[in-house]
Task: inverse folding
């Protein structure tokens, strides 16, 4: 069992990582003295874990469970309203807490609902997918999608606790495991070359859910993210580096229709496009680009997603949150282990999109 | 022209108060360098001020205006979505700003939309009612109503600037002016006996819109509120005192149906109930209770709103944001000029409601 902390003054919190970390949740929560607990989960995760978790937590406070439809299509304001209604129905007050039990979508929706219920109540992240454990459960970004794009409505609202039970990963479909590896690769690429080497060299063990290795990976990824978040909680600078591959990835998700590709799959492809663009701007060598593509492919992620329109992609990226006055800034790689934020000339971007199979 | 500041570290901002303060808005905004501006207003206010304001601001950035239905019925998540849609339609980005031009409802809705658009963009409060100028535009509380009660969904999101043009008050219906005086009386009662004396002695001048006096009143009320907010931004303690009269007031609004009574009218009556309850707990003398009722009546506000059910009122108050595990804390008066937060025995509360005409 590992314990990390995200250092954010009065919003600091712990991340507890390990096999059967879920068993620790009641103890961890008891000092937070919730008056009521609302577990928010989805149709895939709830049947496996929700009832047992509710039983464990019942000694702390009255527990209610709200089950949402699984998948990206639940990241809407309408779903957030369902969670708010459930909070009112169970007579939640300002000292009540939301427990987000599931993947990234559940954490984003439940965390956003918690952030606007009575102007903000506390919530706990219990991520059950690799993607949520290594990335989305840490850092306090919450939100939903809008027709105009991904994660465009939301808030910064830090959890009071994150409990990542790596035992939940063994029941994960392979496709979900691969999706999580996209963020793991990203962390190595933007911050730690040795970590990238570890991940690329042990990809098959990761895909086979080696328990000790998974715990190492979740811990190191959380550490990288927690350090960056602690230095720049609201993304006024360095935190933007965590968006490596995401400007492309968000555009892929939006153009293909939310839910067609998993977020991690779109990010995997986005990492390859970001590497290609970095090479075109003479930041990265061709061998490194190949190495990145190879790692993405070994994680069983798409390195190319064709059939999308170049002009549609450019429009989608101009509407991204990172755009200012229509100008997009990209996160690029100077080398493996070091990312930078840059404005990009239109012709280089166009060349990358062409090479990536955009029509 | 007066300038106050709300001291909140990196979220500090100015309040500019005076006749024709609106003329100063372009200069004040220029240093904030917005990429786009969305003016949010309502059907009553927009015809009078929106076009002129848009013209003044056009030199700073492209300006779009979104006009909402007037009144409390607009304080819904659905209206917030309309504002978000308008932001996407005008290609707003993270450096764009929302200008809330109107009363408390517009400030609450536009501010909340700004707080969740791309996880928070800046906004400016341009309050045009007395209630918004002396109270709701300062302090960063934003939000909307839920079927379960008033202001139950929202966020803390400080404006970047407040511009209160007292000239806009001269065109205000008398009923709206009175509603604002409820918060003015409240500020005197909870923080400053001399201010209360000034307000009670010059009530007829206030109702006649004496320009110099209005500027004094808006400035002093903003000062009282800004000081409290600076010490307790998120209402973990002292800020709760600003809810004097509001636990009763919110229950009246909910039971009578949102929009039946103006917020300030319900608060006026709530102040009388809070005074009565304070007397029953031996905090306040009978003469002070009479004096408070007299001031509320002279402001042409209701001192009693009958015909509501006692048990319904108790249920509504138990669901208030200030309740914890079903127990409501009331803000009471120790004397005129000094408020305290207290748990209240059920029989005293019941007696106050009976005396207040609840059936």
Result:
């Amino acid at each position: 069992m590992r314990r990390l902390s995200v250092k954010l003054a009065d919003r600091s919190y712990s991340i507890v990582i390990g096999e059967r970390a879920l068993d620790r949740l009641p103890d961890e929560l008891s000092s937070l003295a919730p008056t009521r607990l609302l577990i928010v989960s989805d149709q895939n995760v709830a049947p496996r874990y929700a009832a047992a978790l509710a039983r464990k937590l019942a000694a702390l406070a009255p527990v209610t469970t709200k089950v949402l439809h699984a998948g990206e299509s639940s990241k809407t304001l309408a779903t957030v309203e369902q969670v708010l209604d459930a909070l009112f129905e169970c007579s939640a007050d300002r000292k009540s807490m939301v427990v987000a039990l599931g993947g990234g979508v559940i954490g984003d929706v439940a965390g956003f609902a918690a952030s606007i219920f009575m102007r903000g109540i506390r919530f706990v992240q219990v991520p059950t997918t690799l993607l949520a454990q290594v990335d989305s459960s840490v850092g306090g970004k919450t939100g939903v999608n809008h027709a105009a794009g991904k994660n465009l409505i939301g808030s910064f609202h830090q959890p009071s606790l994150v409990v990542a039970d790596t035992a939940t990963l063994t029941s994960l479909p392979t496709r979900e495991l691969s999706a999580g590896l996209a963020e793991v690769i990203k962390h190595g690429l933007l911050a730690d070359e040795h970590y990238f080497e570890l991940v690329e060299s042990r990809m098959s063990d990761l895909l086979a859910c080696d328990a000790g290795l998974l715990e190492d990976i979740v811990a190191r990824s959380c550490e990288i993210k927690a350090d960056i978040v602690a230095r720049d909680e609201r993304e006024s600078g360095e935190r933007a580096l965590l968006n490596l591959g995401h400007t492309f990835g968000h555009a892929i998700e939006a153009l293909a229709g939310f839910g067609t590709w998993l977020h991690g799959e779109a990010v995997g492809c986005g990492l390859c496009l970001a590497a290609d663009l970095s090479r075109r701007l003479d930041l990265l060598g061709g061998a490194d680009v190949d190495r990145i593509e190879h790692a993405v492919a070994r994680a069983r992620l798409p390195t190319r997603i064709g059939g999308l329109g170049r002009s549609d992609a450019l429009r989608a990226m101009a509407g991204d949150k990172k755009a200012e006055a229509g100008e997009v800034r990209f996160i690029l790689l100077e080398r493996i282990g070091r990312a930078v934020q840059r404005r990009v000339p239109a012709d280089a971007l166009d060349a990358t999109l062409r090479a990536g199979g955009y029509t």
About this structure: Chain A has a mean pLDDT of 95. The longest helix of chain A spans residues 211-231. The radius of gyration of chain A is 20 Å. Chain A touches chain B at residues 35, 77, 81, 84, 88, 91, 93-95, 112, 115-120, 141, 143, 146-148, 152-156, 234, 319, 321-326 (CB under 8 Å).
